[in-house]
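REQUEST ID: PR-0412
SUBMITTED BY: lab tech R.K.
PRIORITY: routine
TASK: structure prediction, single protein chain
INPUT:
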Amino acid sequence: MNQLQLADYVVFIVYLTGVSAYGLFVYYRKRKAATNSQEFFLAEGSLTWWAIGASLIASNISAEHFIGMSGSGFALGLAISTYEWMAAATLIIVAVFFIPIYLKNKIYTMPQFLSQRYNNTVSTIMAVFWLLVYVLVNLTSILYLGALAIATITGFSFEFCMAGLAIFSIIVTLGGMKVIGYTDVAQVAVLIGGGLMTTYLALKLVSLNYGYGSDVWVGLSLIKEKAPSHFHMIFDSSHPFYRDLPGLSVLVGGMWINNLNYFGCNQYITQRALGADLTTARHGLLFAAFLKLLIPLIAVLPGIAAYVLFQEGNFQTEMMIEGVVKPDHAYPTLLHLLPAGLKGLAFAALTAAIVASLAGKANSISTIFSLDIYHKFFHRQATDRQVVRIGRFAVIGSMLIACLVAPALKSLDQAYQFIQEYVGFISPGVLAVFLMGFLWRRTTSSAALAGTLLTIPLSAVLKFLPRWTDGRFPDFPFLDRMSIVFGVVIALMILISLLDKRSTSQPRTLQLDPAMFRVSPAFMVGSVLITGILVALYTIFW
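STATUS: complete
OUTPUT:
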């Protein structure tokens, strides 16, 4: 493949220098506050609504979207966009119902909520689960996909690219959430701009390939005409990718469990809003929901365009390894076709997404480890300065572990689906424990503990039992498995709580006020607009 040219490196270095300089400026301007744990982990009270929304998106969108989601767009089409479009609806629900509870009760970490609502045992077990998933699945997969993409684009070794990403991410993360939040604003501007440029090129190439000149709108109509099967949002049971996106489950089943857990019970996401007031936090999440609607435009459409071009005989060498089509090569292949300078911008966009996501994830790992493990069990008298120092060590340690594990993911085909499935092992139990804690005062700590401990075994049994029984047990799609596990865990938690006579005298550990669930007129208008767009999209592409 072609290598980057001088103009590309200039653009990339300008981006790298600009983000680093801005991060250092923010860091040194608030250097004294950076030793305060609330400021370091939450940027308490200093992030605006647009910074919260942009940071959430920048941290959420990473290589698994640019590379993994484009790969899924190549393989199965627009339907993979359901993760983004349903996420927009989910963010509205989280803003209305979840965030007020957290802010009213001064919740700074998700394990803290569990400790306050249940007990330290539930909190600690879940904290360990989260740390394992964040480090071994999320951080590792982001680092792997990012290094793979950059290695493919630049020709540098995978190991060199991985080390570079890790170091850059550590530098950004060590400045704390304020640095992450405001550098993410710049990062999201770059990633959207670069992403749109790649989409423009892909559609232009399709138009040129069929002799219509460089008309992007013609290219858009052509990919829909040439790949009609790639423009269905809801798959029937006969579809070859039904197992990845099982029909209506993406609207009424497992997708809600996946998204409500990710956006509502996930330190990685909620941390952006936990240091703000309620109005600012809500507007930030609403802004993120609008941005979510745009992500398929920059992450999925290029993959579909690459599929159309591949079917016409293009990219045969780039997309195939030893005779096997590799969908995750779609986005890096398109990047190589950009002209000098623009290729550097797209490269910077991809790097921005990777670094922002790595930094956000590392900060969440640092927060949970420092506040919910170290401070609680190893040094209860630790000063803020000591907690922040341990947090910085946790950032470095988690990144080193991810660097060691990441090369093991090289055997994957569609990495995005891998991430979704294995994060889904824990999602049903986590969401069940949180929702029952919110909604039913009688839910006991024993019930929460049972739900926490059973979610992974139940998910594993449902996944592997068909293999163990030679197909006699149904092999459910993973989103449906999540729904089943969620239902079973909820039922068990209700049963355990009802059997415990002490549940009737459960103390009220959460402050709840109906007034805190009321929303502003501006938020209502934005929510209705997003809902209307979603209805239109699913109606058109059903």
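NOTES: Strands lie at 320-321, 324-325.
REVIEWED BY: pending
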